[in-house]
Amino acid sequence: DTEVTQTPKHLVMGMTNKKSLKCEQHMGHRAMYWYKQKAKKPPELMFVYSYEKLSINESVPSRFSPECPNSSLLNLHLHALQPEDSALYLCASSQATRDSGGYTFGSGTRLTVV
Amino acid sequence: AQSVTQLDSHVSVSEGTPVLLRCNYSSSYSPSLFWYVQHPNKGLQLLLKYTSAATLVKGINGFEAEFKKSETSFHLTKPSAHMSDAAEYFCVVSDNPAGKSTFGDGTTLTVKP
Question: Which of A68, A103, A104 to substitute to test the interface with B, most B CBs within 10 Å?
Fold first, then answer.
């Protein structure tokens, strides 16, 4: 299995809702990432997990809460989001953060905040 | 510190003609360099990577890139464009062991029939 699977593919949520994005990989990768991508822009790093521990938080607002329950799963919990948080959220993995082999990306979750 | 500049925001070619997407980088160390492709409403797919082995790197779908240290460049080429190559292309540099890679702003490739 050489894929990163993200669910759901699309999500519409109100500003008072709580929702979660899920990401799963079975490649034995020990580094997992959340990126946010706005239209016509490159992905922006949000969080890095290395061996299930949060190693980088790029000053992301607390309304985004990551979780790594095990080496195969990565969640992003969303609460009280703003319309400007609407974007494509991408999960990626690599063998390790020092891995020079590159990332494997999921197809993303298209999030719309209304 | 690392940075990457994609020299063209848009490139338009005719089907069957060569493709050249340009990327310059800056790095304090020996970097790893990557090209990713993103089709509309999709995730990013790794096209090829340079990791200090051969300077001419072959990737998927007929793409190649050459690492030129003296010019700090890593340009992406393909001899003959297909309609399916129309997409956004990102050049990425990584010299950070903590996992922070730097993405270029992207180049939109249009392929005309």
Answer: A103
